[in-house]
Amino acid sequence: MSIKDWPADERPREKLLQRGANALTDAELLAIFLRTGTIGKSAVDMSRDLLSEFGSLQALLNADQTRFCQCHGLGQAKYVQLQAVLEMARRHFCEILQRGNALTSPEITRAYLSAQLRGLSYEVFACLFLDNQHRVIVWEELFRGTIDGASVYPREVAKRALFHHAAAVIFAHNHPSGINEPSQADKQITEKLKQALGLFDIRVLDHFIVGDGNPYSFAEHGLL
């Protein structure tokens, strides 16, 4: 059955307009992007097949050009469109968290960090430096590592915080494995950073781990 023959409140586009984008499943969102299906399959059916083939929406979005274009119904034009959409999302969150803007929403912060760090094949440790009213001073990548991790040096972090005259910081790093639970090493370095910055009255507001799903918050789990 074609999507146009579905009840109006079940069609992805109409559902989005009536209830908002967050009411749609991954397959329904992907179907809107694809626009059309193939012979015998609606865009939603095709989207479900693609999600099953790749394993997740994230894996599909992070696929390289060769892998993406090999899939039936996809191709270079769709790949270009997808990369443009992803880059617009990154720039959107960069503008929201540009210098001088206050952090007012944990979800915006999570979305920004995900846009910056998710999908990388190597580990990055980065920091949002904030003033005493929690307005963004700058986002800065501090350390970069291999797929196994990045070495983090509290002294260097403190130097950058003092350079930016930061009153508070939010740390973030990614796990290329996709696992967003903190390791014992993550917990230990966070405590060392908190102690080092505390000597200069610089508060550590949170430390996020970006993997699959929602970024993990140290603060929300009582680890700060």
Note the main attributes of this structure:
single chain, 224 residues, alpha+beta, Cytidine Deaminase, domain 2, 2 domains, 5-stranded mixed β-sheet, 9 helices, 43% helix, elongated, metalloprotease, UPF0758
What does this protein look like?
One of its GO terms (biological process) is proteolysis. One of its GO terms (molecular function) is metal ion binding. It comes from Methylomonas paludis. By secondary structure, the chain is an alpha+beta fold. The protein has two domains: 3-85, no CATH class; 97-217, Cytidine Deaminase, domain 2 (3-Layer(aba) Sandwich), CATH 3.40.140.10. It is built from nine helices and five strands. It has helices at 12-19, 26-34, 43-54, 57-61, 65-69, 76-96, 106-117, 154-163, 184-198, and strands spanning 124-130, 136-144, 168-174, 203-210, 216-217. Strands 2-1-3-4-5 form a five-stranded mixed β-sheet, sandwiched between helices. Helix 9 links the parallel strand 3 (168-174) and strand 4. Helix 2 crosses helix 3, helix 6 (76-96) crosses helix 7 (106-117) and helix 8 (154-163) packs across helix 9. The radius of gyration is 20 Å and the shape is elongated. The N and C termini lie far apart (53 Å).
